[in-house]
Amino acid sequence: GICSFSQAFSGFSNRLVILIFCMLIVGDAMMETGVDWLIGRYAVKVSKDDERTFIFAVAIVSGLMSMWMANTAVVACFLPIIAGVSRASPHMTMKNMTMGATFGAMYGGSCTLVGSTSQLVAQGVLYELTDVQFSMFDFMPVGVIMLAVFIIWEQLVGYRLGIKIWGDRQREGIVCTEALMDVDVVSTGCRSKKRSVFALIFAAMVLSFLLDWIPAQMTALCAALLCFITGCSEPKEAVRRIDWNCVIFLACCMGLAAGLAATNLGTMMGNAVTALLGDDPSPLLFFTLVVTAVMFASNFLANATTTVIFTPIVVTTCQAYGFNILPFCMGIVYAANLACATPFAHAQVAMTMVAGYRFTDYVKANLPVQMIMLAVMIVFVPLFFPLQ
Predict the structure, then answer these.
(1) HSE-up of 350 (CA within 13 Å, CB side)?
(2) How do the residues of the chain divide into helix, strand and coil, expressed in percent and rounded to 5?
(3) Strands (E), 166-209
């Protein structure tokens, strides 16, 4: 009885759920036409049998792809490529490349509103509690900086650090399933003749996002329908393949946000926080505490779950102190998305375990870069979006 049935399930007609559903269809069309595979093969070509060059190329490409596709789909696209390359080359091993290459998807997914579920969850909670909303590219400036910092870290420190951590365990624990290792299995979509058509649809969609001709969800809906109409994606197969867990989770989060609004629970928790912080806290101190707490929690909870827990508390606290809500919620999203010190942090992080990493490998290899990203957030988010 906290809220009505229609309120609890209103998320299934929410514009954000429609947006992510349509973007999943567009991402499926990218895979169905083989465009994602061609992009991946190009990354392999430019690497020239060198692990660092390969990591550099794949991190950039996967980052760009995950701005518009589900991060897990991007990682799933590149894992067979990495496995095939490591099998074919005596100089390149899967363990040395997998984390550094595929984590680009994690950073790229933090650059647009549709890049990850966390952004949409935060947007939905904000929509329920305030009139503040993100635009499609609000996350881009700091997101691109963090992607660049990660690539520089990986090239200068991360690559060597990884080799030092797993040492002679290069081949230990690697999951060599046929679907993962057989490049031909993955490349069947490359025979599609619809790539040029999809490229035009995708370019028009991005242009519409940039120029804001129509609402973002309408742009995505038109792009998805065009993928069906032109045969770039087959409706029945697309519905079978898309990540329904993502859609249902996001829709239910909208219902949870409605329940939070109805019970004033967010206000109660926010009041408890303001009582601890006092009458005149530093906005930068509060921002630092928030992103640190979110990043720690996201190493053990799903990033969207962490976002839906922290966002109402932070929104209420910001309203009480007169802080700018937008950068605080952006900090929550970045911190939730970029936690990677355990394999529990995200699905795409867990997927890299096929390379045979141990739990301690994630802690040792990724905790330093996680701390660097925390510092980048604290410095750059307030520069682009004043806290007060």
Answers:
(1) 10
(2) 75, 0, 25
(3) none
Backbone conformation region of residue 167, classed left if phi is above 0, alpha if psi is from -120 to 50, else beta: left
Cα-Cα-Cα-Cα dihedral sign, residues 344, 350, 354, 360: negative
Residue of 332, 10, 29 lying closest to 195 (CA atoms): 29
Give the chain's largest Cα–Cα span: 64
Residue 381's nearest CA partner among 284, 311, 306, 315 is 284
Q: Residue 101, exposed/middle/buried by CB under 10 A (0-12, 13-18, 19+)?
A: buried
Tokens at 324, concatenated: 């700018």
Contact residues for 362 (Cβ-Cβ < 8 A; gap 6+) = 340, 341, 342, 343, 349
pLDDT tens sequence for the chain (388 residues): 877 888 788 778 877 678 778 877 887 787 788 776 676 666 667 777 688 888 888 888 888 888 887 777 777 767 767 776 776 667 778 888 888 888 888 899 899 887 888 888 888 888 778 878 888 889 999 999 999 999 999 999 988 998 899 887 777 766 544 444 444 444 444 445 788 888 888 888 878 877 777 887 788 889 889 989 988 888 888 888 877 776 777 677 667 766 766 676 656 666 666 667 777 788 998 899 889 988 888 888 778 778 888 888 888 888 888 899 999 999 999 999 998 888 877 777 877 877 888 888 989 999 999 999 999 999 999 999 999 8
Distance CA 44, CA 54 (A): 6
